[in-house]
Amino acid sequence: MTFSPRVFSGIQPSGDLHLGNYLGAIRRFVPLQETHATIYCVVDMHAITVWQEPDALRRATREVAAAFIAAGVDPKRSIVFNQSQVVQHAELAWVFNCIARMGWMARMTQFKDKAGKNSENVSLGLFAYPSLMAADILLYKATHVPVGDDQKQHLELARDIAAKFNNDYAASIAERDLGIDGQFFPITEPLIAGPATRIMSLRDGTKKMSKSDPSDQSRISLLDDADAIAKKIKKATTDPAELPLELEGLKDRPEADNLVGIYAALSDRTKAEVLAEFGGQGWGKFKPALAELAVAVLSPMGTEMRRLLEDPQTIDAVLRDGAERASAIAEQTMTQVRDIIGFIR
Ligand code: TYM
Fold this sequence. Notes:
Helix content: 40-55%
Strand content: 5-15%
CATH topology of the largest domain: Rossmann fold
Number of strands: 5
Largest sheet: 3 strands, parallel
Number of helices: 14
Structural class: mainly alpha
Bound molecules: ligand 1
Number of domains: 2
Order of helices and strands: EHEHHEHHHHEHHEHHHHH
Strand order of the largest sheet: 1-2-3
């Protein structure tokens, strides 16, 4: 027996969704609906690890849900919900806080980056964040998690937590016959693939495109209109050389590599295929082609997001329905976890 294939992924409602979130994650959620049971979550509890204005949090939560739907996630086929409506996420995260070791958490580069020199003064939640992320995934015994490259270390930690739980409670799991080949939780596989696992800033090819970059020119927001999308691409920083004919030629050219990767991901091609078409040409040819493609893909999506956001009640109803379906699975897992641990119920 093996765990049945199930996908889980989450996006934080903590600011403007951008092209990196779309290409690294959301766009890839859509085809997985054909092959897997799929659960897509707006992780509002993760967002409050740093301060969020309540009204802005509500708005951003609906925005992420609208982006899922506008991108092609079907809330009937997939479970789409916001994390805080399914209380078992917090419950399992506590259990995992008692499984994970301080040293494991202290090694997380994202925490170190976010906390910076201020590590005494950030929230305890920010430090424990990966434990909640492991709970998100394992509550549904998800086998596959599509994410961008920046989440790799967190997913490795989730695997470590699952393995330690399986191991620490092996006897109890076996006694209750709750394991598959001795494992209660699956050792989840990250799905980090394709040409867009790490989209870089349009201003600086060595920096990740991010919600927290102070420069709005550094990222394309999913709510940017056609004009803004085209302008940002045309103004993107590049070196002066023409595009290379082969992949090799993108080495040490981070800006060129990034823009070719974006073109490839938006057109469902490989970078090599894009170079076969544009290699040898200058930016004066490539940038307008990229701008046209980006507008063709992103601008209808932005329009659909704005349309959905005009009716917040409908979005909230989708999230509530998703939360009910998610809760049914989550409660089943938690009942088993309580028994395994020795909690009386
Ligand atoms: P978050 O909200 O920062 O980002 C959401 C998704 O977008 C991807 N991403 C990128 N991909 C390519 N290039 C970029 N520049 C870029 N920036 C962001 C991220 O890798 C992610 O897939 N901890 C997670 C949210 C989370 C989660 C989970 C994910 C919570 N629980 C369970 C998967 C499974 C986060 O902060 O993502």
